[in-house]
Amino acid sequence: MHELGVTESIAGIVLRHAEMNGARRVIKVNIKLGELTGIVDHYVSFYWDLVTRDTIAQGAELNFTKVPVVAYCNKCREEFRIQEYDLTCPRCGELASDIISGREFMVESIEIE
Amino acid sequence: MDIQILEGVFDANERIARENEALFREHGVLAVNLMASPGAGKTSLVSRTLELLSGELSIGVIEGDIASSVDAEKIKSYGVPVVQINTGGACHLDAAMIREALGHLDLFSLDLLIIENVGNLVCPAEFNLGEGLRAMILSVAEGHDKPLKYPLMFSQSHVLLVNKIDLLGLSDFDTGELRETIRRMNPAMEIFEVSCRTGEGLQAWADWLKRRVRESGKEGNP
Ligand SMILES: [Zn+2]
């Protein structure tokens, strides 16, 4: 879907920080990706080669850390993984849960030389 | 050498969205981000809402479209200010596009701004526009299992309009099962069952929306 646009955003972030740090080349990009975002890492990697052609990030490896969807029960303070997007707390059966992770989409760090 | 960055991919959009949000608040405008699949009935819902509310509220419309201006022309016939955004192929609106469109509207004169997003249930959910209310349409023709396929959109929206209920007898759409899925996924979500073709259920939606406009609107901001 919009993987091309987000890949351009990632490249913008990576190149800005690489240049600020005087990099000759970007070797690796570490990305945190929540499972609720719907972003498909395979397509991001595919577009990455297109988007970074002729830049110092060309050929850099993209490393994705997937973040599962986790909710927190406000009643019994239980943390639990969301299955099939059901917010029912598995311990007390309440629906008073907030999603606390799974929407992350962030460039965590880069490896440069 | 390793360099810590910790920069969100959507951070730039979020910054502009927060500015838009502040603008809406300053002007006492409730902005509604209306999202749905292509063909679910977004433009019909905007038309119906204008018919029911434009006598009582001052309403503006932003029409997002990949390329055409057909929908904007239709909405213009209601005599309300309309700004067309052609995304040039992009599958969603973003906060910067809204910011630019706002330059063509007199926010001081508006109570309600309806933003018709591009037809798509995936990407628009990722891009905050600064809206005060996120609304989505699911049409009966699409099936009651859609929330499980597009969980982000369904978990982020405040209100769901189940459209084309005049087709319920012709399909195996199970409203009870849909409500149960939504209850577990997004318990706070308001649900309206409507038909933009027959007009059924639309008055309840319009009344509810009018209340939301009054709550978020001018009184707090004389
Ligand atoms: Zn619990």
State the low-pLDDT regions of chain B, or none: none
Strand content of chain B is 15-25%
Mean pLDDT of chain B: 93
Strand order of the largest sheet of chain A: 2-1-6
- Helical content of chain B (DSSP H or I, runs of 4+): 25-40%
Count of extended strands of chain A: 6
- For the largest interface in this structure, which chains are involved and how many residues does each contribute? A-B, 33 and 31 residues
What is the C-alpha radius of gyration of chain A, as a whole number of Å? 18 Å
The end-to-end span of chain A amounts to: 33 Å
Stretches of chain A where pLDDT falls below 50 for ≥5 residues?
A: none
**Number of H/I helices of chain A:** 2
Largest sheet of chain B: 7 strands, parallel
- Round the Cα radius of gyration of chain B to an integer and report it: 17 Å
What is the topological layout?
The complex is a heterodimer of chains A (113) and B (222).
Chain A: H1 3-20, E1 26-34, H2 41-51, E2 61-67, E3 70-73, E4 79-81, E5 97-101, E6 105-112
Chain B: E1 2-8, H1 11-27, E2 30-36, H2 42-53, E3 59-65, H3 70-76, E4 82-86, H4 95-102, E5 112-116, E6 133-139, H5 146-149, H6 151-156, E7 159-163, H7 175-185, E8 190-193, H8 202-216
Parallel strand pairs in B: 2-5, 2-6, 3-4, 3-5, 6-7, 7-8
Helix pairs in contact in B: 1-4, 2-8
Bound molecules: zinc ion.
